[in-house]
Design goal:
Elements: E1 3-10, H1 14-25, E2 30-33, E3 45-46, E4 53-54, E5 60-61, H2 65-74, E6 80-82, E7 90-94, E8 97-101, H3 116-127, H4 141-149, H5 151-166, H6 175-178, H7 180-189, H8 192-201, E9 211-214, H9 219-228, E10 230-232, E11 237-240, E12 245-248, E13 253-261, H10 265-272, H11 277-284, E14 288-297, E15 311-314, E16 324-326, E17 338-344, H12 356-371, E18 377-389, H13 395-405, E19 411-413, H14 423-436
Parallel strand pairs: 1-2, 1-13, 2-10, 7-15, 13-19
Antiparallel strand pairs: 3-4, 5-9, 6-9, 7-8, 11-12, 12-13, 14-17, 14-18, 15-16, 16-17
Helix pairs in contact: 1-14, 4-5, 7-8, 10-11, 11-13
Length: 452
């Protein structure tokens, strides 16, 4: 006998948690199904004797209200701490050296991360009014940035900065999906920089300035969600029907009023394709980049010779092994020096599959070349075969096709692929899908005989 439920949310990552909490706040009865052994998805914590390491994200931008909405629903907003002043300095690798860049517009005048020609290109954009939008509806990030700022600034600076956000190949990523504010700035101001600064001055309700992290890592989100939501962990879904019936790997069938599929697109695709071929085909084509996050600590203080700060990023043109390193111990006051280096991405995906020993050797070679120091002790490796969604050129057109194919369906979709692949995009999609499910539906409580 099938088990009756109100709403079943498949996937316990940030999108699924956001959808479930918002639906619950609206009076809906929600059950979350998660294939793993914990909630939170990539937003987790790796404990160690050196201190906690991030399994995925390490901080969030307080300017984005969805984070605060999530934390308030979980009752843990007070756990978020603004990053320490020691984390303000960022570094970009330029000509095999770490070049400092502080979060101050005037720092571009003195930083070695930019040449005189690069600075002139920035000034030309800032002072100009030339509106030169792309010929088509979309173009790659590489084409957009090179058109506005030139090849040197794009290859050496923007490629490094964008790597820290998307871990992808700028030639493959959509400018419209990844950086909509910059594309809009060009159209409205004729200056990407002036438009971006104007956008930053516009704050949304609930926004707070600065970057934030958690003393115990992002794992606090999943832990808090497990206390707020009815959840079944280690539960694999093998089928979902158009009329919202969910079949589990053990044969259990859940008949729901509504279903939210909050997984990677490639996981949702085979569940939808049997009854919605067009939507399944669109989802199956959405690409992801793999990441291996290498956690390490100095054997003795100062071994790495890395300066204090937030971390460093490197562009592909520098031909380094890793994409960059986060200085985890510097983010919050009182932390011991420890580091997480991210390897692979859309730039060199094959490296994400290397062994732990090979990864540490590669990281050590980078640190030696950049500072003359060493990587030290390997604490662990967090591996994500589908770590970051890579919005391809033309992605918005594909989203429109997907939304049309799923229109009126009792199975709804949520995930970072509805935006530009950032955490806020996952949260926005979760909250948005909950807002679209109006009304309160109830079903009888399941009996003990039909519970898994």
């Amino acid at each position: 006998m099938p088990e009756r439920r109100d709403v079943v949310v498949i996937g316990g990552g940030l999108a699924g948690i956001a959808a479930a909490l918002e639906l619950q706040a609206k009076g809906r009865s929600v059950l979350v199904l998660e294939a793993g052994d914990r909630l939170g998805g990539k937003a987790g914590t790796v404990p160690s004797s050196f201190g906690p390491f991030p399994a995925g994200p390490s901080s969030f931008n307080g300017r984005h209200p969805p984070f605060w909405r999530l934390l308030e629903l979980l009752g843990i907003a007070g756990l978020a701490q603004r990053l320490a002043p020691t984390s303000q300095a960022r570094y970009v690798v330029r000509d095999a050296a770490l070049q400092p860049l502080k979060p101050n517009p005037l720092s571009v005048l003195t930083t070695g991360a930019l040449t005189f020609g690069d600075k002139f290109a920035l000034a030309r954009d800032f002072l100009g009014t030339k509106k030169t939008p792309a010929e088509g509806e979309d173009e790659s990030l590489d084409a957009f940035l090179a058109r506005r700022f030139g090849r040197s600034l794009t290859d050496h600076f923007f490629a490094a900065v964008m790597t820290g956000i998307f871990a992808g190949d700028l030639k493959q990523l959509s400018a419209t999906s990844c950086m909509p504010a910059l594309v809009t700035a060009e159209k409205e101001y004729g200056s990407v920089l002036r438009g971006a600064l104007a956008s930053m001055r516009q704050t949304e309700d609930g926004a707070r300035p600065g970057l934030y992290a958690f003393t115990d890592g992002f794992g606090v989100i999943g832990d808090a969600a497990a206390k707020k939501l009815e959840t079944r962990l280690n539960t694999r879904v093998v089928a979902v029907t158009a009329n919202a019936a969910v079949t589990l790997a053990d044969g259990t069938v859940l008949e729901a009023n509504d279903v939210v599929l909050a997984t990677e697109a490639t996981v949702s695709a085979p569940l939808i394709a049997p009854w919605n071929r067009e939507a399944g085909a669109v989802l199956a084509r959405f690409p992801y980049a793999p990441i291996a996050l290498v956690h390490w600590s100095e054997k003795t203080p100062g071994d790495s010779r890395l300066p204090q700060g937030f971390g460093y990023l490197t562009a592909p043109i520098e031909k380094r092994f890793a994409l960059g390193t986060l200085f985890i111990g510097d983010l919050l006051p009182g932390g011991s020096r420890r580091f997480s280096t991210f390897v692979g991405g859309g730039v060199s995906p094959e490296r994400a599959a290397l062994t732990d020993e090979q990864l540490l050797a590669g990281v050590d070679s980078d640190i030696s070349a950049l500072t003359g120091g060493s990587a030290g002790v390997l604490v662990g490796v967090s591996r994500w075969p589908q770590a970051v969604f890579q919005p391809p050129v033309g992605h918005r057109a594909q989203l429109a096709k997907l939304e049309k194919a799923m229109s009126g369906c009792r199975v709804r979709l949520a995930g970072s692929y509805f935006g530009g692949a950032a955490m806020k995009d996952a949260l926005n999609s979760g909250f948005a899908v909950a807002e679209s499910m109006n009304g309160v539906a109830t079903v009888a409580a399941p009996s003990a005989e039909v519970r898994v």
